[in-house]
Design goal:
Elements: E1 5-14, E2 18-21, E3 24-33, E4 41-48, E5 63-75, E6 78-90
Antiparallel strand pairs: 1-3, 1-5, 2-3, 3-4, 5-6
């Protein structure tokens, strides 16, 4: 079974779109969560291809809930992990 995750927090940054090839582009944004702890945590999440515009309706400082999947791949001796977003909504 495929595992999905979600995080709720404050939108703190939205990066510009990056095109890796004519068929693949992505955009990263950051959500700060668990702000009640002594130290808050940041999650950098990725939007790819047709999902890039999903973040455009939200403002920096807005509370949002992000639904995502985790994917990792190994290149040589290093692992690279992405949090791939499939849904963004205002936090309730």
């Amino acid at each position: 079974m495929f595992q999905t995750f979600q995080v709720t927090g404050v939108l703190t940054a939205v990066e510009a779109e990056v095109e890796f090839s004519p068929k693949y582009k992505e955009r990263t944004f950051v959500v700060k969560y668990d702000t009640s702890a002594d130290y808050s945590y940041d999650a950098a999440l990725t939007l790819a291809n047709t999902k890039i515009g999903m973040i455009d309706g939200f403002d920096i400082g807005e509370n949002i809930t992000v639904h995502f999947n985790v994917s990792s791949r190994k290149v040589k001796d290093n692992y690279y992990t992405k949090l791939n977003v499939w849904k963004i909504e205002p936090a309730r």
